[in-house]
C-alpha cells in the first residue's frame, strides 16, 4: 500500500517521478476496499472522540462526510486519482478538502500500515461469509437431489476403472462432505481474521491514549492484536484464506471434471442443463460443457495465486515492506474466481439429469459385485487373501466367457470353494451387492438414508 507522497511530506524537496507514480499506484485495484476503509475510519474517529482526542462534533463531521463520500462511490460519482496512489489517500484527500483541519485529524493514532491491515481483515471477513453462503447453497443443491435419485445406482471408480456400485445419493453426499470441510476451514480461518489491527500504528504503537478495544467492539472484531510489530507484517490470515479458496477450487475442479466425463457419449451418465452449455462455431450437433470445463480450468489461477502469495512473503523482514502491496490482486482474483464458480455450480447440480436407462443398461459390466462376493466368502470362513485370489480366478473365467459372475454355473464357484452353494447367487448383481453393505458411512441404503437425514438437518432443509 502507498506511503505518503513527496508532495504531502515535509522531508522531501522534490516531486516523485511520474513513472514512479504509475509503478507504485494501487488504487486501480484496491479501490474495492473503500467501504471497509470508511467503516474502519468511522470507528477510529468515534474512538478518538471517546478518549478526548477529537470532540464529539469533530467526530460527527468526519462520520457524516465519510458516509457522503461512500454514497458517491456507491453511485459511481467519485473520481479516484492515480496521483493519490491508493484508495485510502483518495478518501482522506476528499475528507480534508471538505473539512480542512478536522479532516486532517482523522489519521491521529494510526498508520497506513495498521489501516491497511484492518481494511484487509474486514474485507476478508466479508469474503469468507459470502463464500460460506455459496458453499452452503451448493451443499443444498446436492442434498436436494438425494430424494429423487434415492434408488439410482452408479458405478464408482478407482483408477477410472469400475470398482463397486453405490447409490447416487451416496455419491452426492461425498461432495457435501468435501464442502463441509471447506466450510469448517473457513470458519476456523475467520477466527484468526477477526482480530483488530487498528491502533498499532506503524510498528511500535502510539503515545496517544487510544482505546483499541473500543475500535474492535465497534467493528465486530472478537480480539485485539497483541503485538504491534507483528501486525505490520502479518499476512497469515490472508494466505490462509487463499489456501482455503484453493482447496475449494480443487474440489470444484474434481466435480467439474467428473461431470465433463459423465456428459460424454462414452459415459452417457448425465445431461447437463443446456443454459450452462455452449455450442460449436462449426459443428452444429455440439453441446459443450464449457462452464464445467472453465470451473476445472480456473482452479489453475487460484492455485497460482496461492503460490504467488507464499513466495511474496517468504523473505520479508519485520515489519512493513512495500512488497505487501502485491498481496491484493491475487487475493481479489482468487475470491472472484471461486465465488463465480460456486455461483454457477449450484444451478448446474440442481438442474442436471441422470440418464437412468443408460446407466442401468451397463451396470452389469465391470464386475461391480466381485468385492461383495469376496466378502461373502470371508463370512463363510475363507481368509481374505485366499478369497481375493479365488474371486479373481472367477472373474477371469467370466471375462473369458464374456458373461457376468451371476451367469457362471454353480460348478465354477464350487470348483474353487466347496463351501459355496446356491446361496452364492443371493449376493451377485449390483442391487444385491449394494443391499449387502452394512458399515457406518457406507453406501448401504439404510446408512445413506441416515446420512441424507443428517445433512437435511444440518442445512435446515426439513
What does this protein structure show overall?
With 462 residues, the chain is mainly alpha-helical. It has three domains: 19-108, Orthogonal Bundle (Fumarase C, Chain B, domain 1), CATH 1.10.275; 113-361, Fumarase/aspartase (Central domain) (Fumarase C, Chain A, domain 2); 364-459, Fumarase/aspartase (C-terminal domain) (Ribonucleotide Reductase Protein R1, domain 1, Orthogonal Bundle), CATH 1.10.40. 60% of the residues lie in helices and 5% in strands. The protein has 19 helices and six strands. Strands 1-2 form a two-stranded antiparallel ribbon. Strand 3, helix 9 (212-219) and strand 4 form a beta-alpha-beta unit. The longest helix is centred in the first third of the chain and has 35 residues, at 112-146. The protein is elongated and about 100 Å long. The mean pLDDT is 94.
Q: What's a quick, concise take on this entry?
A:
With 462 residues, this protein is mostly helical. The chain has 19 helices and 6 strands.
Distance between the termini: 48 Å
Oligomer: single chain
Q: Which architecture name of the largest domain does CATH use?
A: Up-down Bundle
Poorly predicted regions: none
* Mean of all residue-level pLDDT scores: 94
Overall helicity = 55-70%
Order of helices and strands: HHHHHHHEEHEHEHHEHHEHHHHHH
The backbone outline, from C-alpha atoms, is elongated
What name does the CATH topology of the largest domain carry? Fumarase C, Chain A, domain 2
Helix-strand category = mainly alpha
Can you tell me the number of structural domains? 3
Query: How many strands in all?
Result: 6
Gyration radius (Cα, Å) is 30 Å
Strand content: under 5%
What is the CATH superfamily of the largest domain?
Answer: Fumarase/aspartase (Central domain)
InterPro entries: Arg_succ_lyase_C, Argininosuccinate_lyase, Fumarase/histidase_N, Fumarate_lyase_CS, Fumarate_lyase_fam, Fumarate_lyase_N, L-Aspartase-like
Catalytic activity: 2-(N(omega)-L-arginino)succinate = fumarate + L-arginine
Pathway: Amino-acid biosynthesis; L-arginine biosynthesis; L-arginine from L-ornithine and carbamoyl phosphate: step 3/3
Protein name: Argininosuccinate lyase
Amino acid at each position: 500500500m502507498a506511503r505518503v507522497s513527496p508532495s504531502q511530506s515535509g522531508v522531501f524537496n522534490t516531486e516523485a517521478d511520474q513513472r514512479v507514480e504509475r509503478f507504485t499506484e494501487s488504487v486501480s485495484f484496491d479501490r474495492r476496499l473503500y467501504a471497509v476503509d470508511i467503516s474502519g475510519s468511522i470507528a477510529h474517529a468515534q474512538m478518538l472522540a471517546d478518549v478526548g482526542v477529537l470532540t464529539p462534533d469533530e467526530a460527527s463531521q468526519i462520520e457524516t462526510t465519510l458516509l457522503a463520500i461512500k454514497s458517491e462511490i456507491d453511485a459511481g460519482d467519485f473520481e479516484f486519482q492515480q496521483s493519490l496512489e491508493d484508495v485510502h489517500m483518495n478518501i482522506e484527500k476528499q475528507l480534508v478538502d471538505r473539512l480542512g483541519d478536522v479532516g486532517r485529524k482523522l489519521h491521529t493514532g494510526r498508520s497506513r500500515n495498521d489501516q491497511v491491515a484492518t481494511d484487509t481483515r474486514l474485507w476478508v471477513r466479508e469474503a469468507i461469509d459470502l463464500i460460506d453462503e455459496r458453499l452452503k447453497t451448493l451443499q443444498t443443491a446436492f442434498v436436494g437431489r438425494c430424494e429423487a435419485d434415492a434408488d439410482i445406482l452408479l458405478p464408482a471408480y478407482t483408477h477410472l476403472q469400475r470398482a463397486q456400485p453405490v447409490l447416487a445419493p451416496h455419491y452426492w453426499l461425498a461432495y457435501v462432505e468435501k464442502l463441509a470441510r471447506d466450510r469448517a476451514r473457513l470458519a476456523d480461518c475467520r477466527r484468526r481474521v477477526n482480530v483488530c489491527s487498528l491502533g498499532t500504528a506503524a510498528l511500535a504503537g502510539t503515545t496517544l491514549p487510544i482505546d483499541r478495544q473500543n475500535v474492535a467492539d465497534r467493528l465486530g472484531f472478537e480480539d485485539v492484536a497483541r503485538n504491534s510489530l507483528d501486525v505490520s507484517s502479518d499476512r497469515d490470515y490472508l494466505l490462509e484464506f487463499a489456501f482455503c479458496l484453493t482447496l475449494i477450487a480443487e474440489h470444484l475442479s474434481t466435480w467439474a471434471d467428473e461431470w465433463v466425463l459423465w456428459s460424454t457419449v462414452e459415459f452417457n451418465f448425465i445431461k447437463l442443463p443446456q443454459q450452462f452449455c455452449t455450442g460449436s462455431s462449426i459443428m452444429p450437433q455440439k453441446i459443450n460443457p464449457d462452464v464445467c470445463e472453465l470451473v476445472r480450468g480456473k482452479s489453475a489461477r487460484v492455485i497460482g495465486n496461492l503460490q504467488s502469495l507464499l513466495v511474496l512473503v517468504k523473505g520479508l523482514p519485520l515489519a512493513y515492506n512495500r512488497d505487501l502491496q502485491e498481496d491484493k490482486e491475487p487475493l481479489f482474483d482468487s475470491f472472484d474466481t471461486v465465488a463465480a464458480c460456486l455461483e454457477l455450480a449450484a444451478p448446474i447440480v440442481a438442474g442436471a439429469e441422470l440418464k437412468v436407462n443408460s446407466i442401468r443398461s451397463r451396470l452389469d459390466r465391470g464386475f461391480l459385485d466381485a468385492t461383495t462376493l469376496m466378502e461373502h466368502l470371508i463370512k463363510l470362513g475363507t481368509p481374505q487373501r485366499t478369497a481375493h485370489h479365488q474371486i479373481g480366478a472367477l472373474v477371469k473365467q467370466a471375462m473369458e466367457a464374456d458373461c457376468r459372475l451371476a451367469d457362471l454355473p454353480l460348478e465354477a464357484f464350487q470348483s474353487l470353494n466347496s463351501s459355496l452353494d446356491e446361496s452364492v447367487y443371493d449376493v451377485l448383481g449390483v442391487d444385491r451387492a449394494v443391499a449387502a453393505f452394512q458399515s457406518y458411512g457406507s453406501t448401504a441404503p439404510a446408512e445413506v438414508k441416515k446420512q441424507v437425514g443428517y445433512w437435511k438437518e444440518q442445512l435446515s432443509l426439513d
